[in-house]
Amino acid sequence: MKLKLDNPKIFSEIIGIISEMVLEVRIKVDNEGLSISAIDPANVAMILFKLPADAFSELEVEKEEVLGVSLDNLKAVLRRVKAGSVLAMEKEENMLKIIIQDKIRKEFSLALIDVEGDEKPIPSLNFVSKIEMTSVDFSEAIEDCNVVADSCSFVSAPDNFVIQGKGNLNSFKSEFSDEVNIQAEEATSKYSLEYLQKMIKGTKLTDKVVLNFGNDYPLKLEFNTPKISLSFILAPRVETED
């Protein structure tokens, strides 16, 4: 297996984002490209990442390879990537060789690991609301909610979308209508801001974000470009009575 990225900065950024939620992942490489699917240790969030074959300047793989890696180790190596660097990765027995080529050729070898736990299937979800909005507006609304609360609610109607947070004493509400593309029914669902603050780092990858949700239903956030697909699935926060 050998692959090469002429512009590896985005890959480095995505690994950094994923590493905030999981410590170890299985990276799959086949003729269609590279992909990661992982669930955080609390089973609250799922991460789905795909880098298609045409994103690589070189991709050689005889059969599907599954690479178990420590994200802390991989992230530390990818931090050495600079603007203009070329990144190559090769599997050699139980090692992953990473070559960073700029003015100087740098070669790192990371031990491949066995990632514990069975791989979870991607859930089949039917959403009633789909909102497309600018990444900046979405990120700002999440940060505003975090000022007053530890969770926020998404509230949709056919012609309206609201992000709101409510703490013990204080509250915040951001209402969108003309600024977003709404394909929605009436629905309300609440989500953890701790997770959303990690996920909104995906807004640096693209100008648009797509939100899919329902009534007390999982959220799917999509940050997609022609070259990458990064999605998060987040379980709703359901209030329980004592």
Tell me what you see in this structure.
With 242 residues, the protein is an alpha+beta fold. The chain folds into two domains: 2-111, Proliferating Cell Nuclear Antigen (Box), CATH 3.70.10; 129-205, Roll (DNA Polymerase III, Chain A, domain 2). The protein has helices spanning 9-18, 71-78, 135-148, 193-199, and strands spanning 2-5, 24-30, 33-39, 45-52, 58-60, 65-70, 86-92, 95-101, 105-111, 129-134, 151-157, 160-166, 171-176, 181-183, 187-192, 208-213, 219-224, 229-234. Strands 6-2-3-4-18-17-16-10-14 form a nine-stranded antiparallel β-sheet. Strand 7 (86-92) and strand 8 form a beta hairpin. Helix 1 packs antiparallel against helix 2.
Keywords, please?
DNA Polymerase III, Chain A, domain 2, 242 residues, Proliferating Cell Nuclear Antigen, 16% helix, elongated, alpha+beta, 18 strands, five-stranded antiparallel sheet, nine-stranded antiparallel sheet
The average pLDDT value, as a whole number, equals 94
CATH class of the largest domain: Alpha Beta
Tell me the strand order in the biggest sheet. Answer: 6-2-3-4-18-17-16-10-14
CATH topology name of the largest domain, in short, is: Proliferating Cell Nuclear Antigen
Overall body shape:
elongated
Q: Main β-sheet: number of strands, strand sense, barrel status?
A: 9 strands, antiparallel
Task: Please write the string of helix (H) and strand (E) elements.
Answer: EHEEEEEHEEEEHEEEEEHEEE
| Alpha-carbon distance between the two ends | 54 Å
List how many beta strands DSSP finds.
18
Low-confidence stretches: none
Q: What is the total number of structural domains? A: 2
